[in-house]
Amino acid sequence: MAKSSKRRRLNDPGNLSPISTSLSQESVLITDDDKREWKGFCEIESEPAFFNAILKDFGVRGVKTVDNACASVALLNIVNNVSSLELGDSLQQFKDFTATFTPALRGDAIGNFDHVRSIHNSFAR
């Protein structure tokens, strides 16, 4: 397995050139070139409109996102697509119930899945 590296922010003062380090972090603007050349993934806001725009830029059409649930939806996608995992009763029932749904209907079902929403919201600050 590859050695994991420490996650760094694009606008981290440790990642700036010597000229930029003399400026306060608030005054350093990240250019479009900086964003294109960055080898990692920049941290972005968890904003449904951003994810809709990203999907559009990916070339995906006819998809809508569930408000403020991106990480939970990503986790559901992962665990529901690994057949060797043992799911809890609620997740297994959801998977069985939505097995014949279209992706769009399954997305709507996630938005109405009280069990997942309750766990997701328990981590709200």
Structural account:
The chain has 125 residues and is mainly alpha-helical. Helix content is 47%, strand content 0%. The longest helix is centred in the middle third of the chain and has 11 residues, at 48-58. The radius of gyration is 19 Å and the shape is elongated. The model has no long low-confidence stretch (mean pLDDT 77).
Relevant terms:
single chain, 125 residues, mainly alpha, 7 helices, 47% helix, 0% strand
Question: How do the strands and helices of this protein lay out in sequence?
Answer:
Elements: H1 18-21, H2 32-37, H3 48-58, H4 70-80, H5 89-98, H6 103-111, H7 114-121
Q: Helix count?
A: 7
Order of helices and strands: HHHHHHH
Q: Distance between the terminal alpha carbons, to the nearest Å?
A: 34 Å
Q: Into which percent range does the helicity of residues fall?
A: 40-55%
- Describe the largest sheet: none
Briefly note the structural class of the backbone.
Answer: mainly alpha
Radius of gyration: 19 Å
Strand tally, please? 0
Which stretches of 5+ consecutive residues score pLDDT under 50? none
Q: Given the C-alpha coordinates, what overall shape results?
A: elongated
* Average pLDDT: 77
Please indicate the percent range of residues in DSSP E strands (runs of 2 or more). under 5%
